[in-house]
Amino acid sequence: MFRNEARALRYTSQASLYLCEGGTLLFSQATLEAGSSSRQSDIHDMRAPESEPPNFEHSFHSLGEGFHSRQEPAAVRAPELIALNRDLAEQIGLDPDWLAGPDGLAMLSGNQPPDTARPLAMVYAGHQFGNWVPRLGDGRALLLGEMVGHDGARRDVQLKGAGPTPFSRGGDGRSSIGPVVREYLGSEAMAALGIPTTRALAAVSTGEHVFRERPEPGGILCRVAISHIRIGTFEYFARSGDADRLALLADYVIRRHFPELIDREQRHLDLLGQVVERTADLVAQWMLVGFIHGVMNTDNLSIVGETIDYGPFGYLDVFDPDTAYSYIDRRGRYAWNRQPMIAQWNLSRLAECLLELIDEDQTAAVDQVNEVLGTFKARFEARFHAGLGAKLGLAEKRPGDVELALGLLERMHEQKADMTLTFRRLAALDSRDTGGDQPVRELFEQPESFDAWAIEWRQRLATEKRPDADRRKAMEAVNPAFILRNHLAQQAVDAAIENLDFEPMKRLVRVLDRPYEDQPEQADLARPPRPDERVRHTFCGT
Ligand code: AMP
Ligand code: MG
Fold first, then answer.
1. Nearest partner of 28 among 235, 187, 247, judged by Cα
2. Same structural domain for residues 186 and 318?
3. What is the average pLDDT across 431-440?
4. Which ligand is the nearest neighbour of the Cα of 139?
5. Is residue 322 located within the same domain as residue 423?
6. Which of the listed residues 385, 412, 438 is the one where a domain comes to its end?
7. Alpha-carbon distance 457 to 511, whole Å?
8. Which structural domain, as residue segments, surrounds residue 205?
9. Backbone angles phi, psi at 433, to 5 degrees
10. Residue 299 falls in the annotated catalytic set
11. At CA 493, angle to CA 491 and CA 498, rounded to 5?
């Protein structure tokens, strides 16, 4: 048994207890074009345009044996580039023209990684739906290396679906094109909303089939992340008793991702504090746009607070806080309103891993991590409540604001109102005249329910001096007009799987790149699903 388990249980149960009591838990455009050679037209530069292969670095690889398994990707028959995120390529220091050319495709398909790549599968463990799994690891993903961008940031570049690894556990190491399209859309939409996330650099079809319930076209995603280290990476070493590698990992994470902590005496405790803060902020941001991660296992929670693993995720249409879409999540463990509690449960697992690094005196260590874990609630609530205030157009913070916001959520729930449209349309309402309220009223089964709430809202708005035009602008900047609605993601996935048709995906990528703009000509992508379009379950998909 894991040495700290018994001690750790104490704070786990405390943690979940007060979260249950907490009052707030109520609930780049992708292109297919080959590399444009705009530089050719530059008459001052007579040299032929040279595209540059990536110059990968390998800090994670340097951690050495035990952290990864070197693994070359398996070649595919007939790769084609489906989508390339040129803006992201530029940002991370990759040449988009090179990526769009034959050598780029050879890398993105795994057929021929560039000389500077050192493909490897990372090892990790994790708690899946609460159950301990001692070894998971990258079963279908390979880290090619790290790129240091013009902004100085170091980012992992990874292929997902590039063939089996020692961690494949009987899986084929491949991906259907469906999950590739889903993750591309999910992560790019999240980034455009301004929420920390892994990114999609490119999507490739392989020209081969993968066998799921039926044969489906294969695909490979090239994913970019500030880090692929998860809570489960720490658990792997801590729970197998590998104290040396655990310490190495912790110090690597601090050096790479939290360098401001290096010289602190309590750096491991402060590391936990940083992860608590980032995770609390992330979950609050998810919930404010109605996002449900769907599979918040400890192996799917990033150490740097980025959204990672776009498996069975979904967004709320009608506001129902108990919604869980994942097909395998029958009990709603990862429902929208349970995400803060689950995040804290996961952070408690991380805390367990760090105990021995924090203090030789384990009782003292437990007290210290408990104190840090205890900050989650306040951090989450501060972010979530501030976000709710902004969604209502409140510039100032006043007593009663949270109740006002929760009152609207409750009515949206009772009246089956669409979450995204309610907040978006609220922005346009006049702060005094109710004559133009119909666009919001009609979202509620009984519009009078909204009318009653709107009286309180207008009274509250009247206590601020902000002109309506300014308030509207501020509200539109936080209440998206477009989210990746589940039925839209499904339509794009179906078109890709059935017909290798990537037009629906590309249109979504374009529109969701500007989620806070109205884009009236794209109105069909803003509306909620019709009953026949509604998606009730989402799948992990591999
Ligand atoms: P996920 O559901 O994506 O978090 O994956 C959980 C674990 O299953 C990870 O270790 C994955 O690498 C592994 N896995 C998922 N799909 C496959 C696949 N097609 N082949 C091999 N391993 C897989
Ligand atoms: Mg995963």
1. 187
2. no
3. 98
4. 1
5. no
6. 385
7. 31
8. 41-225
9. -85, 125
10. yes
11. 95
